[in-house]
Every structure is written in C-alpha cells, then in structure tokens.
Amino acid sequence: MRKEERQAQLLALIEQHETLTPQQLAQHLGISIATIRRDLKQLANQGLLRRTRGRASLRAAPSLYQRRLHSHSAEKRAIAKAACRFLQEGASIYLDSGTTTLAVAHELQHVGTMNVVTNDLHIAHALVGNPELIVQLCGGTVRRDTETLVGGAALEAIHALRVEIAFMAASAVNLTYGVSNIDPFEAEVKKEVLTRAQKKMLLVDSSKFGRTLASRWAPLEAFDWVITDPHLSPAVLQALQQKDIRVVVAEMENDSLMELVEKKDTIEYW
C-alpha cells in the first residue's frame, strides 16, 4: 500500500470513529505501530489531525482541496520535476489551477528567473516569496472551494496574454472524450488559456485516466505533451501511441514501464 493511500485510509478511519489510538489504527490497517506513528506525526504537521494523550482525532474535516492535495502526491511531485525540464531561464509560463500545477510551483525555485501567470491563489502564494519570479495573478471571481479565479474578468485578462508554455491540469482524461472538469467556469478559463500559449502541456497523474466529467474543455490532441506517472497502464500508453500523442512518463523510485511498452519516439521516460 502506498503512503498516500495508507494515510487517506487512516484519515477515513479517524473520521468514522472520531478518535483512535495508534494501536487501534495499526490493527485496522494491518501495519506496524511505528509506521502509524510516523503517519500521524506527518498528518498532524500538515494540520489534518490532532494528537492528544495517545489518541488521534481530526482537527477539522479535510476539505475537498486538502484531499486532492494529499492524493497521489508522490506522482504529482515526479510529474512536476519532469515538467520543469521543459523550462529555460527567462521563460513566460502559465500555471493552471490544480494540485499538480501547485507541485510545479514548488519546483520553480530550482529553475531561475521567469514570468509566471496563474489563476490559482494557492500557486500565487507559493510563488510570491521567490524574488527571481515575476508573478501575475489573473483577475476574476474567486471560487471558495479551490481558491481559483474564474469568470469574465479572468477570461479578459488571459485573452490579453501570450505565454510560451501553459502547464494545464485536469480532473478527468478519456481517450475519446478528451479532457474535462466538473466546473464549467473553470473549463472556460482553461479553453481560453490554450489559445494564448505557444506550447500546451497536460500534467495528469494516472488516476485521472478513464474518467469523464461534465465540462469538456479540450481533446487530447490539443496538447504538445502529456506528462504522467509510471503507474499509467500499458494499454493506455499504447492507445496514446496510436493517437501519436507525445507522452513523458515521469520516473519514480522503483517504478518503470519501459519493459512493458515498446518504446517509440512519442513516449519518453524522464
């Protein structure tokens, strides 16, 4: 069981029972108490739970955004590192709203000077302390659940832009339906961004494939590259090859699909 899955189950158990001891959690999950204690310490440091007198309870019910932030976090970090390999100092880029693009924001400290545009308040906050970056935040109406800027003002601001690379995120990817999200206002912003970027990169972890949501905003063929993690099924990789969609598989420790899929010039392993 991966750490992210284990910690998600741990939080779900505490939410269900309100408060549990490390011994009870270890028994429920079938893992060692030492591992449970490390997870509890990490989750407490992240503000997701409270540890008191040998018991753990939720500090507050994690928001949907918090759940997304901690879901497949290792994959998102690997994708972010691969994405940054496309960057050169002085570039102008757009970071779409999302937790995978937030991981890119955290990696930009290693890249150098550049101009960054975003409609995500979390991303702007992560970048603003870096003196080497010029950070531009779009106007618009704030969606409180994700702290994302949408609406007419956001669309107008983006229409006036021109960036070299747009790093886009998505909640769902289907090989035939394309890329989609649940919110139509976010989808409209994403559509506009694609018209203002010279290169379009789709950053999605493997859990997003095979899903469809109501607001479709692009076909897969709209992107110059799709960057994902090595847990994507070989069948999906082969289907992307057949569509001549260029893919970067971000390498993770002890993970590789290179022996499972015939390597072609449309797929790279970084």
Question: Averaging pLDDT over every residue, what do you get?
Answer: 88
Poorly predicted runs of 5 or more residues: 256-262
Under the CATH scheme, which architecture of the largest domain would be assigned?
3-Layer(aba) Sandwich
- Give the C-level CATH assignment of the largest domain: Alpha Beta
Number of domains: 2
Give the SSE string: HEHHEEHHEHEHEEEHEEEHEEEHEE
Instruction: Please give the number of β-strands.
Output: 16
Q: Roughly how many Å is the radius of gyration?
A: 20 Å
Distance separating the two termini: 24 Å
Estimated share of beta-strand residues: 15-25%
Structure, described:
This protein has 270 residues and is α/β, with parallel strands linked by helices. The chain has two domains: 3-62, Arc Repressor Mutant, subunit A; 72-269, Rossmann fold. It is 37% helix and 24% strand. The chain is built from ten helices and 16 strands. It has helices at residues 3-17, 22-29, 33-45, 64-70, 73-84, 99-107, 121-127, 152-159, 184-195, 234-242; strands at 19-20, 49-52, 55-58, 92-95, 114-118, 133-137, 141-143, 148-150, 163-169, 172-174, 178-181, 197-203, 215-218, 225-228, 247-249, 267-269. The strands form four sheets. An eight-stranded parallel beta sheet has the order 6-5-4-9-12-14-15-16, with helices on both faces. Helix 6 (99-107) links the parallel strand 4 and strand 5. Helix 2 packs across helix 3, helix 5 crosses helix 6 (99-107) and helix 8 packs parallel to helix 9. The radius of gyration is 20 Å and the shape is globular. The two termini are 24 Å apart.
